[in-house]
């Protein structure tokens, strides 16, 4: 884990102290990821002789970024991304185009609403992304770090995440 990631994670944690906000982020991030890849799953592309979707191609750069920040967390997020990309492929193969776009809109509304509620109601502060747009890409890393810590892994991350006093709502 590089010093850049440690600094970014420590900054991100300051906006995510309340456990309810963190729970809202788990759902919000998953819904927003699915909403982002769902329409792109409609487009089939061939890359190096392999058939895939535009969604898969679009996810590769951010997966590389996550791997560079922290290999273990990046690998876990890759697993989650594979599941969500598979869910998107199943939805696209069974839904009408109008149904897919309706679901995408619902996922965006619910995903964004969960982020707003988490920050406004539970944290009582603005989202980290407002002050630092790169935090948009740290959300999945933070959620995965919290999961690793809960499972008893990654004490190095627990030290960063828990080094500051918890908020009053914790």
Automatic annotation (TrEMBL):
Keyword Ribosomal protein tagged: no
Entry keyword set: Membrane, Transmembrane, Transmembrane helix
PANTHER family in alphabetical order: 2-HYDROXY-PALMITIC ACID DIOXYGENASE MPO1, DUF962 DOMAIN PROTEIN (AFU_ORTHOLOGUE AFUA_8G05310)
Pfam families: Mpo1-like
One of the GO BP terms on file: sphingoid catabolic process
One term under GO cellular component: membrane
Protein name, as recorded: DUF962 domain-containing protein
Native source species: Bradyrhizobium valentinum
Transmembrane segments: 20-42, 48-68, 75-95, 101-122
């Amino acid at each position: 884990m590089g010093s850049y990631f440690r600094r970014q994670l420590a900054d991100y944690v300051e906006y995510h102290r309340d456990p309810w906000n963190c729970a809202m982020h788990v759902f919000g991030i998953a819904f927003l990821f699915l909403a982002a890849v769902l329409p792109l799953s409609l487009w089939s592309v061939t890359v190096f002789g392999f058939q895939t979707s535009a969604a898969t191609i679009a996810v590769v750069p951010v997966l590389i970024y996550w791997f560079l920040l922290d290999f273990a967390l990046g690998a876990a997020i890759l697993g989650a991304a594979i599941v969500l990309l598979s869910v998107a492929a199943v939805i696209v193969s069974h839904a009408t185009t109008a149904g897919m776009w309706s679901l995408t809109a619902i996922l965006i509304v619910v995903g964004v609403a969960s982020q707003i509620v988490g920050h406004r109601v539970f944290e009582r502060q603005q989202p980290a992304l407002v002050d630092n747009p790169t935090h948009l890409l740290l959300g999945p890393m933070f959620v995965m770090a919290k999961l690793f810590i809960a499972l008893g892994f990654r004490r190095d991350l627990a030290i960063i995440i828990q080094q500051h006093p918890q908020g009053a709502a914790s």
